[in-house]
């Protein structure tokens, strides 16, 4: 969009320069211009409207140039913000990693299965939530564990 805007501005500028170099255009009733081996003859009214069209092309090119620059600036701003966010996220993760490494170095580790029943690499005697001793409850005379097959009778479907 920026390139097209610049092209329209240059085209309008070239038209203004071509008209300003022709001394006979302002002095006669009709003006003739040769562009790419084609001759154009304009009356003063047509010449005025050609100038208006040239000004409109210039303004269109300027508007396209400015909108393209605005869009590019917004894209760069968004890219810069996303990079800063990613950089902050990486720094936060690195800090968390260092903190976890410090905790790991401070905690003694063991591989003895007798003192590491949950197999997390930390002595269960040093953990706050180590395994609890089993509590035996005396069996009551009417407690029965019923397991196995139950046979159905014809009456109880």
Description of the molecule:
Keywords: Membrane, Transmembrane, Transmembrane helix. The chain crosses the membrane at residues 47-67. It comes from Planobispora rosea. By secondary structure, this protein is mainly α. It has a domain at 2-106. The protein is 55% helix and 8% strand. The chain is built from three helices and two strands; from the N terminus they run H-H-E-E-H. Helix 1 (2-21) runs antiparallel to helix 3. It is rod-shaped. The two termini are 83 Å apart.
Q: What composes the largest sheet?
A: 2 strands, antiparallel
Output the radius of gyration: 45 Å
The number of E-state strands comes to 2
Percentage of residues in helical conformation: 55-70%
Spatial sequence of strands, sheet with the most strands:
1-2
Protein name: Lipopolysaccharide assembly protein A domain-containing protein
Keywords: Membrane, Transmembrane, Transmembrane helix
Organism: Planobispora rosea
Topology:
Layout: H1 2-21, H2 24-27, E1 30-35, E2 38-43, H3 44-106
Antiparallel strand pairs: 1-2
Task: Produce a short descriptive summary.
With 157 residues, this protein is mainly alpha-helical.
């Amino acid at each position: 969009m920026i390139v097209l805007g610049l092209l329209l501005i240059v085209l309008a500028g070239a038209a203004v320069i071509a008209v300003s170099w022709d001394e006979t255009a302002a002095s006669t009733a009709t003006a003739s211009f040769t562009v790419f081996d084609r001759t154009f003859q304009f009356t003063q009214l047509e010449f005025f409207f050609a100038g208006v069209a040239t000004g409109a092309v210039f303004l269109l090119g300027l508007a396209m140039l400015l909108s393209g620059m605005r869009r590019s600036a917004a894209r760069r701003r968004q890219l810069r913000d996303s990079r800063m966010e990613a950089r902050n996220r990486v720094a936060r993760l690195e800090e968390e990693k260092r903190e976890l490494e410090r905790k790991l170095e401070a905690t003694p580790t063991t591989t003895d299965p007798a003192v590491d029943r949950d197999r997390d690499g930390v002595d269960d005697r040093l953990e706050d939530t180590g395994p609890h001793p089993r509590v035996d409850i005396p069996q009551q005379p009417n407690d029965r564990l019923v397991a196995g097959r139950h046979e159905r009778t014809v009456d109880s479907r």
